[in-house]
Amino acid sequence: MNLLIMGLPGAGKGTQAAKIVENFQVAHISTGDMFRAAMANQTEMGQLAKSYIDKGELVPDQVTNGIVKERLAQADIREAGFLLDGYPRTIEQAHALDETLKELGLSLDGVINIQVDPACLLERLSGRIIHKETGETFHKVFNPPAGDYNEADYYQREDDKPETVKRRLDVNIAQGQPIIEHYRAQGLVHDIEGNQDIKDVFAAIQTVLTNLK
Fold first, then answer.
1. Number of domains, the chain
2. Catalytic pick from 19, 50, 69, 89?
3. Minimal CA–CA distance to 4: which of 72, 103, 79, 73?
4. Is 184 one of the catalytic residues?
5. Where are the alpha helices (DSSP H) in the chain?
6. ω before 88 within 30° of 0 (cis)?
7. Each residue's pLDDT tens digit, 146-183
8. pTM for this entry
9. Which end of the chain has fewer surrounding CB within 10 Å, N or C?
10. Is 31 annotated as a binding residue?
């Protein structure tokens, strides 16, 4: 079974990807892992990626696509299938993936799209606060400090501030929408309600994947 998982930051994509891999025994292909493995194994594309990363530059699509192709060409993929996580990030990468799969004689069986209202994600992602003295992490809504805490004793990382989170979500929505539409046109997208208990989200995914097998 060859799958793709999509979802905005904070939608629980990572948690559900781990559950899919564990329960359906497919190879988990995440962008970060792929880059690290390609560089460690000193593959042609891995060395090329390293040359950009060492200079502090963004790795071009051509190299990223090449690393994905190297990984998808490995033997375990034909035996177990795969779950792509974190790729494609742009519509150009989606088109490149179409070509790669065609060249390798593979095809996608489904795209799991975990949907959560961006307003909920903004609350979820921008509520993290850290105690200045102890470094303990809390969440204003879901895991607040005990009692009437003094906000002056806590701080937020730049990444967690509402305006930063909103920008990140906006970028992800703008990039992700054309990709979802691309796969929806192929009849591959399965929308999953992500704003529910983790177990219920996975139960919905499990139903979809069991029907795909």
1. 1
2. 89
3. 72
4. no
5. 13-24, 31-40, 44-54, 61-72, 75-80, 91-104, 118-126, 162-184, 198-212
6. yes
7. 888 899 999 999 989 999 999 999 999 999 999 999 99
8. 0.86
9. C
10. yes
